[in-house]
Task: structure prediction
Amino acid sequence: MESDIIKISHLNKSFGEVKAVNDLSFRVKKGELFAFLGVNGAGKSTTISILCGLQKKDSGTVQVNGIETDKAGTQTKRMLGVVFQDSVLDKPLTVKENLMSRAALYGITGNAFDKRLQELVEILDFDEFLNRPVGKLSGGQRRRIDIARALLHRPEILILDVNWCNKIACI
Result:
């Protein structure tokens, strides 16, 4: 039986009188593809922020690979690669500079960085704009670099917080 890589139980989060997340529970098994869908304002991004340790929960438990995120420090954060709704790339820096600065936070430098960068360039096909400032990229090109940034450190879990209403016709 496969273990839970993510387990959220009875999660609650409020902002003043607004209940952003109300008694949410779900599990994701290792190797499983999981889609977390809901209308705008349903608490998806808030839940992801709590999972990543960017926001505190009011109550409930959040575990990554069996470890409670609010007690783990950086241990669970290193297991996650996150592509946020809004790009977190530095627009004046080139693609390579953005990825190099992020990789350095994980101790990936020198030849190790060059090797990982080449792998990601091949997977995500961004060689032609590697030395272009991020601010000069199209939205789709920037999204590929956001994904590369999230994959730099070979995370066990990739989280894509994407507003699909901007990508497809919403009915």
